[in-house]
UniProtKB/TrEMBL annotation:
One MF annotation (Gene Ontology) recorded for this entry: N-acetylglucosaminyldiphosphoundecaprenol N-acetyl-beta-D-mannosaminyltransferase activity
Organism, scientific name: Companilactobacillus crustorum
Protein name per its UniProtKB record: N-acetylglucosaminyldiphosphoundecaprenol N-acetyl-beta-D-mannosaminyltransferase
Pathway named in the protein's UniProt entry: Cell wall biogenesis; teichoic acid biosynthesis
UniProt KW keywords: Cell wall biogenesis/degradation, Glycosyltransferase, Teichoic acid biosynthesis, Transferase
Catalytic activity, as annotated: UDP-N-acetyl-alpha-D-mannosamine + N-acetyl-alpha-D-glucosaminyl-di-trans,octa-cis-undecaprenyl diphosphate = N-acetyl-beta-D-mannosaminyl-(1->4)-N-acetyl-alpha-D-glucosaminyl di-trans,octa-cis-undecaprenyl diphosphate + UDP + H(+)
EC number: 2.4.1.187
Function noted in UniProt: Catalyzes the conversion of GlcNAc-PP-undecaprenol into ManNAc-GlcNAc-PP-undecaprenol, the first committed lipid intermediate in the de novo synthesis of teichoic acid.
Top EC category: transferase
Keyword Transferase attributed: yes
Family, similarity comment: Belongs to the glycosyltransferase 26 family. TagA/TarA subfamily.
GO biological process terms, semicolon-separated: cell wall organization; teichoic acid biosynthetic process
């Protein structure tokens, strides 16, 4: 794998176009994949937390979210093609899901934000099969996980902040053969 190490986090080095091609193939194959989109803050916290670092580096796709990562890679003499944000990735997956009539599950953010995100998907991406959504302030984690397993989504978008979302995906990704991605505060932007 063509990866670039920035202070211990190993980033994939491809263009957004290549990445999107991989995601299309993954969706067609119903592959189980985990995408992380580390920004400089996440790189620094992974440096201090070996378990978190391992989880990130074992993800299938490690995407440089932030111009600081691109600048750092360049100054280390191992440049990365381009910045690809978590929000870009959410946008691409939603567009691809609409094109492929895929099943999507949304998890995270405040109740009104996830409701507005679900409403936007139903209105603007009518071919998506939105199989479920839940805010990120739940008490019974196992109920949510059961629902995801039951609904068999092709894409699970998880917005619990870092490292919560990465720990959640790492623990439960075997429950559905989906593309799982931690999208941070993306629903707050998407819903607005
Ligand atoms: N969030 C959540 N549950 C939590 C903590 C955070 O659903 O227990 C959501 C929060 O509402 C926001 C998103 O996670 O939509 C990202 O939070 P934050 O901006 O703090 O994290 P970052 O994007 O900086 O990782």
């Amino acid at each position: 794998k063509n990866r670039v190490n920035i202070l211990g986090t190993e980033f994939d080095n491809f263009t957004a176009k290549q990445f999107h091609q991989y995601l299309d193939d993954d969706l067609d194959l119903k592959a189980n994949k985990f995408i992380v989109t580390p920004n400089p803050e996440i790189v620094l916290s992974a440096r201090k937390d070996n378990n978190f670092s391992k989880i990130i580096n074992n993800a299938d796709y490690v995407i440089p979210d932030g111009i600081g990562i691109i600048k750092g890679a360049k100054s280390l003499g191992t440049p990365l093609h381009e910045r690809i944000t978590g929000f870009d990735t959410l946008q691409y997956l939603i567009t691809a899901a609409n094109r492929k009539q895929a099943k999507v599950f949304l998890l995270g953010a405040k109740p009104e934000v996830i409701q507005a995100s679900a409403d936007k998907i139903k209105k603007d991406y009518p071919q998506i099969d939105l199989v479920g959504y839940h805010d990120g302030y739940f008490k019974d984690e196992s109920k949510i996980v059961e629902e995801i397993a039951d609904k068999k989504p092709n894409i699970v978008l998880v917005a619990l902040g870092s490292p919560k979302q990465e720990l959640f995906i790492n623990k439960y990704r075997d429950q559905a053969d989906a593309i799982w991605v931690g999208v941070g505060g993306s629903f707050d932007v998407f819903s607005g």
